[in-house]
Structures are given as structure tokens and as C-alpha cells.
Amino acid sequence: MANVFLKPEVIAATSLGLLQREVVLPRLVWSDAISDFAGAKNDTVSIRVPARLEAREYGWRNDRSSEIVLDELAETKIDVTLNHDIYSAVAVTDEQLTLDIRDFGQQVLAPQSYAIARAVEDLLATTIEGATYATTVEIDEANPFAAAVAARTALNIAEVPRDGRVLLVGANVEAAMLNSELLKRVDESGSEGALREAMIGRYAGFNVVGSNAIDPDTAYAFVRSAFIFAMRAPAIPAGVTFGQSMADSGIAMRWIRDYDPMKLRDRSVLNTFVGAAVVSDNTAAAGDPENLELVRAVKLTLPGGASS
After folding, report:
1. Domains of the chain with CATH codes
2. What is the largest CA-CA distance in the chain?
3. How far apart, in Å, are the Cα atoms of 270 and each of 26, 114, 244, 245, 258?
4. Nearest to 209 by CA among 170, 182, 248
5. What is the pLDDT of residues 138-197, one digit of tens each?
6. In the chain, N or C terminus with fewer CB closer than 10 Å?
7. C-alpha span between 301 and 304 (Å, rounded)
């Protein structure tokens, strides 16, 4: 199907914003291993998860007839693989480039980069939604704050760091939170301005982030290190006439633009390599490598939802 561009003389100089989902997930998870993929076997990097130990006590002023106990350290690892090549390719004819396109970046490149950012976020959302959680919490629609407290308690018991905790909420969960009596009462919410703007902000110790990428009846309480997001912009080939690395919505990608003389058209191609993984911890003090659980995140669901 050919591209369709509106002629400049029939549209206003300013255009309406595109109805598009705000891409937020890539900024919420861990992605520090990006540079390690160069030369990695099977395009896979192993992320080290430190061993857990329990301290012991030696009898005070004992007769030294017994030896101390030597524990063994058992680190675990999380493998994350670059195994998705997400791309967007568009061909622009001479006529379109000459007569129809006023701003190549706005009319061609922006829709392409958003398409990639959304596809990458969908991949990360699939990873989050498909994980097996050590703790799940049912949300009482009349009192969603209690579910957030239960998720916070589960993270506390698992000794998950309190700093940087996020509560990622679907549309229906967000609505339940905004409709709850806690947020309706200005004196308890503490922010009259937040109510006017329908912004939740801090909630039971979490930074609340709404997303349409996840099931509207679910929410996820987690820290950044609960999920790994690997991303690498491909190298720019020496044979292309134009190429550069760029970023949009926290997504690194490569842009190649060249000309196809046999069909008299420009080609604009964006792509990125990505992969995602779930971080499971060894929750046994003895260091059993088989006892791995996702405790850095908690799943919350509304009753009767698709994920219940």
C-alpha cells in the first residue's frame, strides 16, 4: 500500500497530536548490561545475583572443642539474550518527497520511531505479565490502598530495597485508586492539586506509574532490578549513504536512509536489538540453586479480571 500524505494546502500548519500510548516501561527496569553484549556467546550475557548467607554464633568462652561451621557461597545468574530485531521500514517516492512531505522528521521518522518504541515496550510488558510471582495480591476495588500495603509488606519481608519502588498500574486499577475514598478526601491524600489533575503520585511508598501496555485489571509492584531489559542499536554498515544512532522514549535504535535508483524512491529503516529477562533470587539461606523465586516484584489483580 502506498503512503498517504495530506497536501500542505488543505491542512493547517499545525497538526493534531497522534493518539498514541505513552511509552514508560523501558525507563522503569534495569538495563545496565547493554555494553557487555559485544562478542558474547549466543548473544547472551549472564547477570550475577549475589549469594545469600546467614551469620552464625560461636559459643562465648566455650572450651573450643567444636569447630566453627564453614558455609559455601552459591551465586546464581540470570541469562538475558538479545533475540529480537525490531524494525520499521518505509519507502518514500520522489513525488512524495518533492510535493507532499514538508517535514521528514515529523511525518516519516517520528511515526517510525514510535512504532519501534511501542513494539519494544510490548515485549517488555509480555515479560512482566508472563513472569511467575512468589506473591500475588487481590485488589479490593473499594479499598485498593490495602492491596498496595500488602504488596509493600511482601517486598519488605523479602528484604527488597525500599528505594525506587514502583507501582505499575493498568487503566482499571488506576481508576479504582482514583475513585477510592482515600484519594477523594483531600485531607488524607495531602495534595489538592494532585486530585484536580487526577494524578496519584506517591501511594503506600510507591511511585505510581499508569500504563496501557499491561492488562487494565492488573498492577505490579517492583524495584528496578526485578526485570532486565537488554537493548543494542545495530552497527551502521559502511555501505550505506546515511546512517546514525538515535534514541526515542528511552529506546536506542539505528536509522538508515538510502536511495533505491531502480524504483526512484528513498528508504528509511529503523531497527534495534532487544531482549528481556526476569530476575529470580535464591531465597534459601543455604544457597540452594533450585530455590529461585521472583520476590523483587508482586502482582496485583482486580477480582474478575482477565488475569485473575
Report:
1. 22-51+80-301 (3.90.1690)
2. 97
3. 18, 10, 10, 9, 12
4. 170
5. 999 999 999 999 999 999 999 999 999 999 999 999 999 988 876 655 444 455 554 344
6. N
7. 9
